[in-house]
């Protein structure tokens, strides 16, 4: 099937998460580690003026011996903190059996790179969010083509869930100086083929905090609709993805760094 024929539809906004003419920043820790840790991280997101906080309760770790996340307890922590601070939560769902539970506690469900081709999960998430205020962030698979990524999005949309945001998060290449290779061409190509918003995750792409702000600026220029970045109030102590976490106090600097690029593109940073 020709993706350009099948995906092109109305402009989607993921129920307000992506607003035309703006550039949405989602920030927060890779993983919820404790109430205190998530609260400190979320307060920094709020101080920087961002409205969406990320955090993982169910983590797709490469090793089964790594910290797997706090599960339902992590969801409850995110729900409580975000309610108190007036933020909206973006968090990953890995298992079809957890969809309802995740929807109870979070506004946006992330489908991770390792699950992009989990078609039964995609269909069940699409059906579950249909007619609700919930959105989906669909990460591109580690070695998925743009066409495969867009067709994965169609599994969600054709099941009823039309609030899908695509997320480029780097692909596997021969390069070893970064964790993955951020494929900004894919952002541009995807935006030409679909009206689904496209955001960028520079944190997982680079795997290094020193590249996160430069790649974020480049994402604005590549016409991305936003970013999802990892930040931590004590980056060196993070239980997951410590090397790529921006210090929480750097989020204000991220906003300031993005502003001139966003203005040049006619967008307001949200
Ligand atoms: C994450 O966002 O923490 C994550 C695991 O992302 P990805 O699925 O892109 O690796
Ligand atoms: Mn992570």
How do the strands and helices of this protein lay out in sequence?
Elements: H1 3-7, E1 22-28, H2 35-47, E2 52-54, H3 72-85, E3 88-92, H4 99-105, E4 108-111, H5 119-129, E5 135-139, H6 146-157, E6 164-168, H7 184-193, E7 198-200, H8 202-206, H9 212-221, E8 226-232, E9 246-247, H10 251-264, E10 268-269
Parallel strand pairs: 1-2, 1-8, 1-10, 2-3, 3-4, 4-5, 5-6, 6-7, 7-8, 8-9
Bound molecules: phosphoenolpyruvate and manganese (II) ion (MN).
Summarize this, please?
By secondary structure, the protein is of the alpha/beta class. The chain is built from 10 helices and 10 strands.
Order of helices and strands: HEHEHEHEHEHEHEHHEEHE
Q: What percent strand? A: 15-25%
Q: What spatial order of strands do you see in the largest sheet? A: 1-2-3-4-5-6-7-8
What is the number of helical segments per DSSP (H or I, 4+ residues)?
10
Largest sheet composition? 8 strands, parallel, barrel
